[in-house]
Structure formats: C-alpha cells, structure tokens
C-alpha cells in the first residue's frame, strides 16, 4: 500500500503564507498531477511529501503513519534538472542507492550482494532504454537519456511513492513523448503511487489519473503574502485507472482523453453512457 493523506496542511515562512488549509487523499497506485500558476506552492508541497520541508500546521501520513521528517527510501524523486552524479557511470549512478542503503559510510557492496544489485541495476537500465550505456558518464548522454537514468536511479530502491518535479519540462517534444510512454509503462509495472508537478496541461491529462489545481483564491497585490494557495479544482480522469490494473477501455490512451471535471465542492458522479 502507498496511500498519502494530507490533512489541513499550512506552510508559512515568517509572515508569508505559501499554502493554506490543503487537504488531499492520494489513493494507492494513483498518478496525480499538480498544476497551477508559477509560485503557488506546488514544489513546496512536493518537498513536504519528500520530507525536505515540514508543514507549519497539519499532518501528512503515508499508509496511516506520520511521514518521516526527512527523505527516505520509501519516497523516490526526479527533478527537472538531471539529478545524477557526473563522476559516476550509468551503472554506478543506479547502484548508488543500494550501496548507500547497505553500507552507509563505505557505499560499497561485495560478493553475492553486489552481484545481485548489479543484476537488478542492469535490468532497470534495460527497462528505461539505456542498454549498452552502462559504462558511459552523464556528460556522454543526451538530455532524454539523462532523465531516463534519473528514473532508474529513483526506482532501484522500490519506493512506495515517486515524486516528479517537472521532470520532462526541459525535453524536446519528440523525446518528451517517448518518456511519457516509458513513464506510463513503469508506473503500471511498479504499481507505485506517483505525484507529479507540471506546467504542461497536456502532459497532466496524458499521464495522470487525477489532476489537482493549486491557486490563491484571494490574491490582491497589496496583500499577496497574507493568503496562501489551496486546492481549487480536483479533476478525475475518465476512464479511471490504477497502476497494474487493466484499462477500462483498450488500448490504454497515449494522449489526452475526455475527463470528468469536478470542483472539490461538487458531488462526485460518473458519466453514464459516455465513452472517451
């Protein structure tokens, strides 16, 4: 299980309110996209889910337990800037998480443990489409290849939740489409819960099972810091899907489809007789 519960969360920096009374439940194996204007607190919210920031008020729970106050292996993350180590090869980057978790100070594995970890790393490298590049360094890879590497690096620890902070924003459209297809396949295979920040609405509706919009409801310029952003729309994508579950309609979509758009204060209902 990997259910996230965010309960009446506020985030303040001194007199500045960034997030205001945010409540959200993310079901296990869901794929949620967070959208909204720049500076409305989406990345701050993601950093709280990661454990890099703590809420000023409210609670965040993972599978009913309070979220640890620092990042851990149960939450993987991929940033827009390729978060890979330039001095390590592709294989070394993917192996590092396993090495650090087993031997925190030496960061080395030996014998059967190393052989098992190397086999798993090579399998992941193949899954993200980097077979044959195991001995290359990040500087020798294209942007799309580096982002594939970052995904493999995050997945080696088998996180319950994968957090994505605009991970595909810097990629060319053609490469981005390939990464979208890869991301959907990995999500189905790993059956993780995914939370992604994006400014690209097409990307949000292509990948996600649910799109959540952040916005300041009250945004007078002279009082900008007195009000924080909150969730103003919560849109469930039709047909509903979960990682690892067969799609309601076959084949699964490769682009945006008709969605069931609901405000948070609207009663949830399913369209009758509608097809995407």
UniProtKB/TrEMBL annotation:
PROSITE patterns: ABC_TRANSPORTER_1, ABC_TRANSPORTER_2
CDD domains recorded: ABC_NrtD_SsuB_transporters
Region entry Disordered, spans: 246-276
GO molecular function: ATP binding; ATP hydrolysis activity
SUPFAM superfamilies attached to this UniProt entry: P-loop containing nucleoside triphosphate hydrolases (SSF52540)
Family matches, as Pfam families: ABC_tran (PF00005)
Name of protein: NitT/TauT family transport system ATP-binding protein
Lineage: Bacteria, Pseudomonadati, Pseudomonadota, Alphaproteobacteria, Hyphomicrobiales
